Amino acid sequence: MRLILLGPPGAGKGTQARSLVERFGIPQISSGDLLRASVREGGPLGAEASRYMDRGELVPDELVVKMIEDRLGRPDARGGFVLDGFPRSVAQATALGAMLKRRKLAIDKVVAIMVPEAELVKRISGRRTCRQCGAMYHVTLDPPKKDGVCDRCGGELYQREDDSEQAVRTRFRVYHESTQPLLDYYGRAKLLAKVDGLGAPKQVEKLIMGALDGVAPRARGGAPSERGGQAGS
Fold this sequence. Notes:
Number of helices: 8
Structural class: alpha/beta
Shape: globular
Largest sheet: 5 strands, parallel
CATH class: Alpha Beta
Number of domains: 1
CATH superfamily: P-loop containing nucleotide triphosphate hydrolases
CATH topology: Rossmann fold
Radius of gyration: 19 Å
Distance between the termini: 19 Å
Helix content: 40-55%
């Protein structure tokens, strides 16, 4: 099972990706995690990425795709994977498709978790983080026992700058602008399924599994897809 999971910040991609990982026994692959890990490990790709990141610049698509390709070459990804947060643009999707075609592989399904902007603002702007231990709360969904105080360590809870309402709305606009063409791209390839992300995690999980109905999961080490390269067409 080779999947791409799309959705704006706060849509619950991480939660759903973990569920898919447990269900199918395949790894969750995040481009952001790969970049940070590569920089920490200090390999050639990490060193190159670090030069861009240190200057506050975006890491070029070709370098990100190289990292993805390197990660997909590891044994645990032979039976499939869940791409979380990648691709972020049509250019990245095209590069991913070309890379998979070279490997005689293809994406089985692209699932987009759809959540309205107002709900995302409510979800994210209500987050509070402990300055001391990093524990996270939500003012309405998961409040601390004492307002503004961490249950675990007694540290001060604060709202991160990127969790403010204005920041959330900006992030949503950027996501929408970059992702709408991506939805069109995978829609034309007959790979896209949109699911409503407004429900509880278990409800959303059920919708995702319904969207995957008929897409046969592969066992670890299974044969490559016969549709090699379709995702990049």
